[in-house]
Amino acid sequence: MVALDEGLITPSYGVSCYGGYGACGGVYVRCEHKNPGHAANLRLALANSCNSYFSDIFRKAIDNRKYSNTIQGYLKWKEYMNAFGLGRTLEVDLPSEDKANIPDTSKYNKFFGGAKRWNSCSVLTLGIGQDKMTATPIQMANLMCIIANRGYYYPPHFVDSIENEMDADTSLLAKYRKKHIVTRISDSAYQAVHDGMNDVTVYGTAAYIKIPGIEYCAKTGTAQNPHGKNHSIFVAFAPKDNPKIAVAVVVENGGYGSVAAGPIAGFIMEKYLNDTISTEGLARVETVSKTNLIPDAIRRWYLRKDSIRIAKIAIEEAAAKAEIQEENNKANTEALLESNSKPIGGNDTGNKIKIKSSLLMNDDKRKRRDSGKP
Ligand SMILES: [Zn+2]
To answer: Domain of 277?
Structure first.
């Protein structure tokens, strides 16, 4: 979108990718595809999720001659990211919203040891959503909303309306009813991205994820995970024309975006738009809901945590039992002492205490009493 809006590319711009982007020397960004022509234009690059293409156009944005240097180019790119709702809060109606991160230039100046010591190659993987940037799922869903709406959004909110709305409610809800217009990007740029994202679902990386009777637009994502299997990401909006729903699904350790997150996003959109899930879909919902993707290391951590918890409970229970036993013993001794101090064949109260004490006696005392020994 940035490269299109800045006039750096047109939708027909293409790159030659043979399995990765190597124009930065030391940094090489791998691509899942090697076949010639898979990034011959924007639509193909989106459909095939070509990392080389997005690395290339990211550099074009940072090295834009319109801006005097890397810092200025980066600041303009960051301005677009913030306009699209990334690296800032969206002011949802929940506390503790995370703004995630589109790093400031000062972060990179510090990291690389000065403003002139980094360039578009140093931060290349930002172009495919990596490096030091982060985004929350709600930011990604909102981004889909902006693209679907061709340039605007309403802040995401849980409370849609209040029954018998009063003036106070209206003023409370006002900020969620305010239309936020994102930086004015041409309709043709949005159209190019819509077409590419539709191709993703027709013959691209999400081709086998279908919503019965509905055409939609999507983009798969596979986030590298240094601790294990990649995280699976899927963002989408549907229907393709007059969109009604935007979604973002993130499945940790799920692998490719189309494998774990894609089907879930598909079910959400199908249920929302068709109000039901097809019979064939239901079987897959069952399979997905039973899939356990928790890695062994984390499962072991939970097991260990659980066994420690169980052991702690057992120790507490044993301590509580011992305390009850001790109290009983004490009560028995007291009762026995008291009963011994009463005359044999005494009054009613004495008899009652005797009965009670025999019930509470431990075995040793009972034996001694029964054998007549003191
Ligand atoms: Zn490629």
So the answer is: 205-293
